[in-house]
Design brief:
Order of helices and strands: EEHHEHEEHEHEEEE
CATH superfamily: Dihydrofolate Reductase, subunit A
Shape: globular
CATH class: Alpha Beta
CATH architecture: 3-Layer(aba) Sandwich
Number of helices: 5
Structural class: alpha/beta
Largest sheet: 8 strands, mixed
Helix content: 10-25%
Strand order of the largest sheet: 5-4-3-6-1-7-10-9
Number of strands: 10
Number of domains: 1
Strand content: 25-35%
Radius of gyration: 16 Å
């Protein structure tokens, strides 16, 4: 059974992107030494990528090759993608997708991008773990790590460690709800 995970950077004030999806604040950390937690190593254990439409549109507009050619990719969207930048599948219904993902056995599933889709998975008890790379930056606003939805949950700390350039890696697990 595949584990569904998050791997994301956030500012010290809790944002993953500045106003207008600005990531310039994060680019100053390019080349940072994450050791065994390096992005390339992380991506090597990922069999499937899941992202929402806004994240797909953002990645597709970048002036670079499709970064996920080695993985199965699902985009959660209700709108068709006319000319996909990379090989991908679309899904409309999160519950059906979660069941499909749980049956995979060829690597973990990474929830890429924004907090809305990660929150939808959390609300369904389907986000198993998250690695948050807390960057020593206050950016003052933008897209929050987790959008406010009224959902409450506890997380179990698996690890916390200082990284290069003042970054702190926080690793949490979410226990799945027990069926009544």
């Amino acid at each position: 059974m595949a584990k569904i995970v998050g791997y994301i950077a956030a500012s010290l004030d809790g944002f993953i992107a500045g106003e207008g999806d600005d990531l310039a604040w994060l680019s100053v950390y390019d080349g940072m030494d994450l050791g065994e937690h390096d992005y390339a190593r992380f991506l090597g254990r990922i069999g499937t990528i899941v992202m929402g439409r806004a994240t797909y549109d953002f990645v597709a507009e970048l002036d670079q090759p499709w970064p996920y050619s080695g993985q199965r990719v699902f985009v959660v969207t209700s709108r068709p993608i006319e000319e996909p930048k990379g090989e991908l599948q679309t899904r409309r219904h999160i519950d059906g997708l979660i069941a499909e993902l749980r049956d995979l056995e060829d690597g973990d599933v990474w929830m890429v991008g924004g907090g809305r889709l990660q929150m939808a998975f959390l609300e369904r008890g389907a986000l198993d773990e998250i690695e948050i790379y807390l960057m020593p930056e206050l950016i003052g606003g933008g897209a929050p790590l987790f959008p406010p939805t009224g959902f409450r949950a506890g997380a179990r700390l698996l690890g916390a460690e200082p990284m290069d350039r003042g970054c702190v890696r926080l690793h949490y697990a979410f226990d799945r709800p027990v069926a009544a």
